[in-house]
From TrEMBL:
NCBIfam families: NDP-sugDHase, PRK11064.1
Name of the top EC class for this enzyme: oxidoreductase
Alphabetical list of InterPro entries matching this protein: 6-PGluconate_DH-like_C_sf, NAD(P)-bd_dom_sf, UDP-Glc/GDP-Man, UDP-Glc/GDP-Man_DH_C, UDP-Glc/GDP-Man_DH_C_sf, UDP-Glc/GDP-Man_DH_dimer, UDP-Glc/GDP-Man_DH_N, UDP_ManNAc/GlcNAc_DH
GO molecular function: NAD binding; oxidoreductase activity, acting on the CH-CH group of donors, NAD or NADP as acceptor; UDP-N-acetyl-D-mannosamine dehydrogenase activity
Swiss-Prot/TrEMBL GO biological process terms: polysaccharide biosynthetic process
PANTHER family: UDP-N-ACETYL-D-MANNOSAMINE DEHYDROGENASE
Residues covered by the UDP-glucose/GDP-mannose dehydrogenase C-terminal domain: 314-412
Name of the protein: UDP-N-acetyl-D-mannosamine dehydrogenase
Family according to the record: Belongs to the UDP-glucose/GDP-mannose dehydrogenase family.
EC id: 1.1.1.336
Keywords on record: NAD, Oxidoreductase
Length: 414
């Protein structure tokens, strides 16, 4: 028997919640999006996405115009609830669960027997069980001995920024129920729009799955960055060495870069590390390799600038990865800020933003420029993000300039 869900309330309309809400609406469900930010709610009710992501604007507009998607500042009654609020780190790198806690508490007044509550926010082990405690505490009428009269499941998200709209539908999903029937109900809801497989497990295993996916990526990127550091010290092109090593049928080394950024890979491993001191040494080492990488790249840029006898540097890319406008935890941003603090005159080129983020605007000596203007205003060019348009830069355009390619895109041109 499958559950029929007609309405869903999505709490948190950010990078994950907004595409999820719009996709559910496109699948025919009545979706109530909730955010504590009134600007986000107003933009959505006007049919606009408040961040840029391929195909999202069209999806959101269609969902709002069809009347299937409406936004609110407070949770609304629904058959199911999806929580997609932030889970940042505290100063000591432990997870800050205050947003999840607040979101869960905010839906207590509207929760009804038979509802399904899904947590999608990346969370430390045991979070789903612990938010069940909020229901026990605040809604004793929804408690039946050891059981709850609602279903609760953890359903991690793994969509790739830049391809979110497609991956939301095509990726396999993991749904972890607090009780086995909770996972089955979560599966029924995802099957309304997911074409990939939906795999059922228990809640804590699903929490673990999300964290080890990102820790795995972090450890493997750290390996590539360590290879780069060793290679560069010995005058070896790490990209060439890695590409040749990858000719081995069982070797697949990732590409080195300026560090690891974004909301996920640079953050989530800490959830396991801080929760399991003494058990996560490898993950801890990977974090420090990747966190140290921006400083190494700054050193390379400084050396190139000194050799060129110039303080004028063009930095290409501010986003944390290619072809997105997301600057969160971006190592490129950190590199540019550090160069500005050290007195360099930096021309930043970021085709995906219209204005510098306040962190850089305040630095004074950073100017957002077009690629051509930045080349005209610099003697050193540092490529920090492999945005597609930067692949068109020719050796002729770089002629006479010192080049630091932190992502290996121009290896043959520099
Ligand atoms: N962005 C990604 O690529 C990605 C991928 C996988 C998992 N995740 C995880 O998904 C979760 C959400 O990430 P995101 O990137 O969408 O974050 P985000 O910051 O883009 O969006 C979160 C939204 O939640 C809102 N919010 C905060 N508290 C709220 C509350 N109590 N009620 C309603 N709204 C509230 C915020 O105003 C914000 O608009 C995080 O745990 C993140 O780790 C993100």
């Amino acid at each position: 028997m499958t559950d029929k869900f007609e309405s869903v309330c999505v709490l948190g309309l950010g990078y994950i919640g907004l595409p999820t809400a719009a996709t559910l609406a496109a699948a025919g469900l009545a979706v109530k999006g909730v955010d504590i930010r009134t600007d986000v709610v107003d933009a959505l009710n006007a049919g606009d996405a408040h961040f840029s992501e391929p195909d999202l604007e069209l999806l959101v507009r269609g969902a709002v115009e069809s009347g299937k998607l409406k936004a609110y500042t407070k949770p609304q009654p629904a058959d199911a609830f999806i929580i997609t609020v932030p889970t940042p780190m505290n100063g000591d790198k432990s997870p800050d669960m205050s947003f999840v806690d607040a979101a869960m508490r905010s839906l207590m007044p509207v929760l009804a027997p038979g509802n399904l509550v899904l947590l999608e926010s990346t969370s430390p082990l045991g979070t789903t069980a612990s938010i069940a405690g909020i229901v026990r505490e605040e809604r004793p009428d929804l408690v039946d001995g050891d059981a709850l009269k609602i279903s609760l499941a953890y359903c991690p998200e793994r969509i790739l920024p830049g391809q979110m709209v497609r991956e939301l539908v095509e990726n396999d999903r993991i749904v972890g129920g607090l009780m086995p029937e909770d996972a089955a109900r979560a599966r029924d809801l995802y099957k309304t729009f997911v074409h990939g497989e939906v795999h059922q497990t228990d809640a804590i295993t699903a929490e673990m799955v999300k964290l080890i996916e990102n820790a795995y990526r972090d450890v493997n990127i750290a390996f590539a960055n360590e290879v780069a550091a060793i290679g560069e010290t010995h005058g070896i092109d790490p990209w060439e060495a890695i590409s040749l090593a990858n000719r081995h049928p069982r070797v697949n080394i990732l590409s080195p870069g300026p560090g690891v950024g974004g909301h996920c890979i640079a953050v989530d491993p800490w959830f396991l590390i801080t929760q399991n001191p003494g058990l996560a040494g490898l993950m801890n080492a990977a974090r420090s390799v990747n966190d140290g990488r921006p400083e190494t790249i700054v050193g390379k840029i400084e050396a190139a600038a000194e050799a060129a006898g110039s303080k004028r540097i063009a930095c290409l890319g501010l986003a944390y990865k290619p072809n997105v406008d997301d600057l969160r935890e971006s190592p490129a941003l950190e590199i540019v800020r550090e160069l500005a603090q050290r007195g360099y005159d930096v021309s930043a080129v970021e085709p995906h933003v219209d204005a510098l983020p306040s962190k850089l605007a305040e630095a004074g000596s950073v100017t957002l420029r077009s690629l051509d203007d930045a080349f005209g205003a610099s003697d050193v060019v540092a490529l920090l993000v492999a945005h597609t348009p930067f692949a068109d830069v020719t050796a002729g355009m770089l002629g006479g300039k010192a080049v630091v390619d932190a992502v290996g895109l121009w290896r043959r041109q520099g």
